Amino acid sequence: RTRVAGAGLRLMGPSRDIALALLAKSVRADSRVDAEESVEGTETRSGAAVGASSPSEHQTAETSATAKSGARAKPSSKSSKSNKSGNAKTVTTPKETKATPTTPSTSAPSSSGKKRTTSEKLKTFLKKKSSIPEIGRRDRTSVGGCGGGGGGWHSHNTKQPPKRYAEFWPRASVEQGLSDGSLRLGKIRVSAHHAHEAFVSVAGVPHDVKFEGFDARNRTFDGDTVVFAIDPVQFWPKLDDNKWNTPARVDGGCAGGRAKQRQRRRAAKAAAAGEVLDDKDTGVSDIARGMGDMTAHAVADDDEDGDDDDDDDDDDDDDDDDDSETSGIHNTRSPSSPATKLLADAARSGGVNGVPLRPVGRVVAVHELSPRRDIVVGYLDYHDADEKTHAKETGKYVAIRFFPSDPKLPTMFVNTKDAPPEVKAAAVSFEDMDTLRKHLVLAQVRTWPAGSSHPTCVVHEVLGDAQDLETATAALIAEHGILGADDFSEEAMRCLPYVPMSRDLATGKQTKKWTIPHDEKAKRRDFTKTRVVSIDPPTARDLDDALHCEVLPDGTLLVGVHIADVSHFVEPNTALDDEARQRGTSTYLTQKVMPMLPRLLCEDLCSLNPGVERLTFSAEWEMTADGEVLSEWFGRGVIRSCAKLDYGTAQQVIDAINAGGTGVEALCEAVKSGLDKSVNGPVMVDLNADGESRWDPAAVARAVGGLNRAARAMRRARFAGGALRLDQTKLLFELDKATGSPISTFPYVTREANHLVEEFMLLANAAAARLVSRAFPNKALLRCHPPPNEIKLEELAQFAREQGLNVDVSSAKVLHDSLVRLKQSNADAYEITQLLATLPMQLARYFCTGTQDLETWGHYALCAPRYTHFTSPIRRYPDVCVHRQIAAALDAGFAPVGYGGGILGEGNDGGGETEKVSKSQKALAAQCADRHGLFDSETLKDVASHCNERKLAAKAVQDGSSHAFLCAYLRANPRVVCGIVRAAGKKYLRVFIPAFGCEARVEVDGLRHVTSCGNGGGVTITFEPTAGEEDLAIAVSHTVPKDARRKAMRNTRGLQGPFLNCSEAQHEALAVLEQETMDGTTSTSGPSTSGDVFNCGVAPGTLPTTIKPIQRVCLLLGAHFPERAKPEMTATLLLRNPLNATR
Fold this sequence. Notes:
The protein is an alpha+beta fold. The chain contains 30 helices and 39 strands.
């Protein structure tokens, strides 16, 4: 059967002309035609797309493939000749350079040019670009069980290796497709739970494009920037359908590589029902039929051996919510283009009766390789148990495999040629392998030919025992390419200023002391006579912000925000600037910090420590006592801070003032406590005897009170104007000083003092955004936050309706108001609803104003029309860029505008764009931009993208470190906690644990002695023991035969003890915890209830019981460090044992 392109266009109405125009550019191709000029072998990250196999000439009709199961489309004669002559032709490309955001290129910035670990072996290894040939046998089974596809095993030329995957398209065809819009670019995200599923976001389309099956992914890695084609709309499945209902194409192909099985299954089902399957009824609307030929797709030859995991879970709920951070920004069509709007309409309501559809597609080339290929953390072992047994019995060489600890990455062959000695030894010795398999290793991906089911990697370092906490930390740092304080290059360190030795008059000690040059000080506004204080966490050493507050004679406030002037020390286009840009951000682990700048800068010269003069960029506002801004000033300054307060001390001052006091006593007590220690505590003050100190406890307390009153009013106005806040619990740990192991954990408490600082930092960031976007409308670095995902937001609303909760999701303001009311009326429901409210939220990201439409510049959660990061240049590179832009804007004569509304802006002109800029000022701004080394628009776009990626990496390391330390703590100290059920099914529960701010999966299915069944949105658990009291007596008797006793012990496993399905070790831990509760050594995490023997806020369950969402359950938390995975927290549902009469 032949389907003529354009059929059904008459049904499109007004969209017909657009569709016809786009149809003329549509690509229809057979992916098996031979390659023209391929650059696959170079694996370059810069330049054009990686490609190999070519589509044929662009066609406007699609012919059907043979109906025979497993058959292949007949190749063209051109393809046959090429295959007989060997591999596809390749084109020689220039040697890869270290592409960084400073170097404009046709692709996103590369991170390959930067060293990615502290290991010297790794530094040397990553410089090698030579291709190492693949070793190991070819396997007809793809990663995760997917069979052949793509090029297929049924090649017509038996002299060539069979093709497991389709070859990539050649450069010329890819460039043509990107140019005419039939192909798109995007960053691929692989599901952590279903590795055969991957997604790419398309700006303007409400649902991600899905690549279903390994064939559709085609040898890509999570994080690759790929070139992809979207299938015609009539082949899109319903959004909520599983993949077995995905419509098959006429040629038998589909995105998942199992079209024929699905087609036969549907046909069999229809035949059994006595129905006739109409090929024309694809279950899409008229507009979707009309759009069918607008999308491009190279028809590959799928075979029978696709993946057969029929789980219908959608990856939208997985931990891949970084789509807004980096995905979609590379696409060649803007969200406002007609083609994208039509695709968006089809995705929203393209199905019959307006049903939403899931866009599907296929990867045709790789544009940029993910940095994740450079460093992969995992384990070495034999492929399966049979190979392990063979190695043990024979002692002969058996190929080993690399198993990444990240489930998004595929299993790999291992090339042992350049491997460390222990890896080479393990390859030929079962005993050595048995030891090595318990260790974490670092590897680098080298090749993945189309004929291989797995990529090949090279192992370059063995990190250590996977059970060790330090090994887990080292793996996190290496996996995400985080560099430490000792890894700065010599070139970068030579950029630091000279700091002479100076004699301390008070102590007589020689110390290094840097002073501000007189000519530099003369250029700046002098704030050294102003009483400036900083408020930071107690352990902070990089103090990059400070505040001052003075009361003017008319009662108004003069408030200043002072930010460390890092750009004075980090000059553009220097080795230090390159290093800071490559790192992008400081990374905060549980036990240490990996700084963006050398310690001399971040802890000394740039840190706004009390008692020393420091350079700043400062913003000053005249405002009413209630925070209404009357005027605004921006400029360079010099300050001398009089005190460093921690949040706790500032809160004590606020509490005292709220109670009618002055706060002076609390401040003096904190200062005295700090001075009594050999090392200053959280509070440090300027007590220098040079007569220049501005330290005055009474004046500082009044300043804190004035700042807090204004901040409180500003916060109230911000939320009234439409802002949204979703809090997440952050864990802190107390570590053993000798071993570094966690000995206790507690949540970080956010208080009004935190909000005080936050409000003024938000105000300063918004002011900076208005200034730079007006001065440089095409190359300002801003930060936007897109609106939430529509589908997930509706899921939140549906959950609220099902639970009888009054939650309005129509805007950020009403959602915030709903959460505030819910917190007051139902604390447990608030915890779950707030958790669910975070799922639809996209991530904020940096962007260059010249590469994004004006209407997308806003920040959804803050309800700010313009926003950027300006207040933390010591730890964030984008702030350094914004400082340079502010300096250039000030030199060009730009002054603040649009400040009347604070962070919300003034009316519809939140950024002050209506203020006209003269041609002469524009010319002056261009000159100042060059003088201050500002990036051009394209380079700044790359810098923003790189900083987005580094920020995500730093967050992943921070979260991973916290999780590893929590697991280490729970492994040594099991805890009974109260959990709140988010979702309840017959297989498992999703439970939120407020005490630790995390979620746990609690298994229900498979538990011994109980049965579970769904019950109206919940699960009912009943007691059905497989043994009785007689068996329990036999199991502990020493007079019965040994065989009978062993049988009874097996049958009563999980029945022995006061709680069901708890091991002996767990019962011992529970007994200790209950005794501690009776002794009063453990504290409650909620109001005590009847039977709450652990004082955790809920009693252990009794059977039968029905568990539903927003219900409390009692859990025993523990942890283990598995051999082939990252540390895991375990959660056991505590249920009373009905057969145990002693409790």
